[in-house]
Write a structure and sequence with these properties.
about 700 residues, alpha/beta, Rossmann fold, Helicase, Ruva Protein, domain 3, Zinc Finger, Delta Prime, domain 3, five-stranded parallel sheet, three-stranded mixed sheet, 8 strands
Length: about 700
């Protein structure tokens, strides 16, 4: 059993109506045939495989049809049968390949035979293919014959380069330029052919076949013939087409585009590594990436481009393009496409294409390093997109109207106003607390005198007015979190630095955990999952109530009320590196406390008092740990509950930038050792005095 002919030979058109995509040529030719106004010489030009030679054969059949003049050959007469698809051919229709018969001797031989009358048909037709290969001497030898041929002679020149046909010949012909076939028309044509062949083809594979054919009907049918030959029982699949044709799979393109949108350099360079490890050509990958960015630019400008047919993609691919374009700004997409196009030009002939591909990706990822107009617009697009995702007019959280570090010291306890701590009553308690500290305090001591004047200054008089100003923001948080979040993992990772910064204003320990040990590993409508590098960090995070801090920060920044869950992920690393001037993770050391006691407490400790009224010793004996701790407790009990911490430098440094809701702030007025023991379970080793 003989093998079937190639598709482009089996489905070669036999009439002008069967020629696709060349209506601007076939319709005038059909009109000229029907009106019997056919010229003696024609020049068909255009890209390869677009129907020039086929149209020349159809024209020859129509000229020699027994029903002529007729627009289309009848297909039943002897001439039509001889010139039909698979027919033996006609002695009166001569096809000459000018690539091998373009010399002057061939032209002279043609000129001698052309004067003989046709054997069976009305006209003797010469179809000269690849006419641009005819030499200048050959054209000059044919010039007189083409200019004044005998009545029975017709010439049809077919060429891909009409400029190489000498002007004297070109001016004596009717020129019909053929064009490339539109992709959508080719797609529908291939679908019909597959139905006739009885082979199914996936919708996602059709654009790949059309793209490989590059608008040429013959090349496209050759590619389809190859895929049909290698198809299995499931037909022509996308995986088969992308593998055989060498195109980048859509999964890799989707992955790298999502990584660009999220600014995830690790994912971008991971895709580059996959391209190299799977043996794909970096140049082809760059070309496919540029084509994808071009589609996204069009979709960004025309959101319904996939549905309207402006972009020839499948339905599911069109939905993905719309989703991806929404994550970019127009300026950011244009800048990325320009960088990839420039890099693709540089990659041609390069000896290290992978290196150039990685440099292209690095430039796309870093709009901040681009000081041109495109770079500035790309950064502006990112800020606007972040504000649109979070639902706030600016990327900064709107809950705290004034940063904690800019507030006056007496205004910080404002959010804790419902608690009964800042009341004038504790002013009575300092004297009993100081009694066990000072060994021999004089009866009319100054401390009660100094505490009383400080009471009005420490009492936050403007608190009642400041508290209602901050109250309206609180009822809005539940409204923002009433619905479930629709943010993807990419969106959350893009907004994660703002959430972490919001936790810094609430609780420092939580901020330290997030910047050093945690990263976002998963998110859905209700749950945010954090991965910790070790079990100890995770246990400290959970036991310290940091989950609630992260939840409140997410409400303020993103407007999503997530349940925060934690897991141990050994490969986890902090998504947000701490800034260069990050504060120390431990609370303020208690060592500055003794100097504070000497400045703030008028009654000196027993070891500094001069009992005998003599001169104080030059080098007093160094106090022991018990005396230091006692002095520290005296300071904490002497200072009123509402006193301004700026009066105590050591304590002011510890809580200078603490948020009013910071659970790590020394709101219980504990000492440094007790605060470390309560929060971190640490035990302070007492300092051994030197003899």
């Amino acid at each position: 059993m003989e093998s079937p002919l190639a598709l482009y030979r089996r489905y070669r058109p036999e009439t002008f109506q069967e020629v696709i995509g060349q209506e601007h040529v076939t319709e005038p030719l059909r009109a000229a045939l029907a009106n019997n106004r056919v010229n003696h010489a024609y020049l068909f030009s255009g890209p390869r495989g677009c129907g020039k030679t086929t149209s020349a054969r159809i024209l020859a059949r129509a000229l020699n049809c027994e029903l002529a003049p007729v627009a289309d050959p009848c297909g039943e007469c002897d001439s039509c049968v001889d010139l039909a698809r698979g027919g033996p051919g006609s002695i009166d229709v001569i096809e000459i390949d000018a690539a091998s018969h373009g010399g002057v001797d061939d032209a002279r031989d043609l000129r001698e035979k052309a004067f003989f009358a046709p054997v069976r048909s009305r006209y003797k037709v010469y179809i000269i293919d690849e006419a641009h290969m005819v030499t200048t001497q050959g054209f000059n030898a044919l010039l007189k014959l083409v200019e004044e041929p005998p009545p029975h002679l017709r010439f049809i020149f077919a060429t891909t380069e009409p400029d190489k046909v000498i002007p004297t010949i070109r001016s004596r012909t009717h020129h019909y330029p053929f064009r490339l076939i539109p992709p959508r028309l080719l797609s529908s044509y291939l679908t019909e052919l597959c139905a006739q062949e009885g082979v199914s083809i996936e919708a996602a594979a059709l654009p790949l076949v059309v793209r490989a054919g590059a608008g040429s009907a013959r090349d496209t049918l050759s590619v389809l013939d190859q895929l049909l030959g290698g198809a299995g029982a499931e037909g022509v699949t996308y995986a088969l087409a992308s593998g055989l044709l060498g195109y980048t799979p859509d999964t890799l393109l989707d992955e790298v585009v999502d990584a660009f949108a999220a600014g995830d350099g690790s994912a971008v360079f991971g895709v580059v590594d996959k391209v190299i490890e799977t043996g794909q050509d970096p140049r082809r990958f760059t070309e496919d990436l540029l084509r994808r960015l071009r589609d996204l630019v069009i979709v960004s400008a025309v959101p319904d481009a996939p549905a309207s047919g402006l972009i020839d993609v499948s339905e599911d691919q069109g939905e993905r393009l719309v989703s991806q374009a929404a994550r970019f700004g127009a300026a950011e997409l244009t800048r990325a496409a320009d960088l990839v196009a420039t890099g693709l030009t540089e990659m041609r002939g390069a000896t290290a294409p992978r290196l150039l591909l990685e440099l292209i990706c690095a430039r796309v990822l870093l709009p901040g390093a681009d000081h041109s107009t495109d770079g500035v617009l790309a950064r502006l697009d990112r800020l606007e997109r972040r504000a649109a995702i979070s639902g706030t007019p600016s990327p900064e959280p709107a809950a705290p109207p004034v940063p904690a570090q800019d507030r006056p010291a007496q205004a910080r306890p404002a959010p804790r106003e419902p608690e009964p701590v800042p009341t004038p009553a504790p002013a009575v308690t300092p004297p009993p607390a100081r009694e066990p500290v000072s060994a021999t305090p004089p009866a009319p001591t100054a401390p009660p005198v100094q505490v009383v004047p400080e009471q009005p200054a420490a009492d936050p008089v403007p608190e009642p007015a400041a508290a209602p100003a901050a109250e309206p923001a609180a009822p809005e948080a539940p409204a923002a979190t009433a619905g479930s979040s629709t943010l993807s993992l990419v969106d959350v990772r893009r907004l994660w630095p703002d959430i972490v910064e919001a936790t810094k204003q609430r609780r420092r320990v939580t901020w330290i955990h997030l910047t050093q040990h945690a990263q976002v590993v998963a998110v859905d409508a209700r749950t945010l999952t954090l991965g910790f590098s070790n079990g100890g960090a995770r246990e400290s995070f959970d036991n310290g109530g940091s989950s609630e801090i992260v939840r409140q920060a997410a409400i303020d920044v993103v407007g999503a009320d997530w349940k925060v869950e934690t897991i141990v992920d050994p490969g986890a690393s902090a998504d947000v590196p701490p800034p260069a001037a990050a504060p120390t993770p431990e609370p303020a050391p208690p060592r500055p406390a003794p100097p504070v006691a000497r400045d703030e407490v008028e009654a000196p400790p027993a070891w500094l008092s001069d009992d005998d009224g003599g001169d104080p010793p030059r080098e007093p004996e160094r106090p022991g740990p018990e005396s230091v701790n006692a002095a520290r407790e005296a300071i904490l009990t002497t200072r009123p509950a509402g006193a301004d911490r700026s009066q105590a430098p050591g304590l002011a440094e510890a809580d200078a930038d603490a948020h009013p809701d910071d659970l790590d702030a020394d709101s219980d007025e504990l000492g440094g050792a007790d605060l470390l023991a309560r929060e971190l379970g640490a035990q302070v080793i007492e300092e051994i005095p030197h003899s």
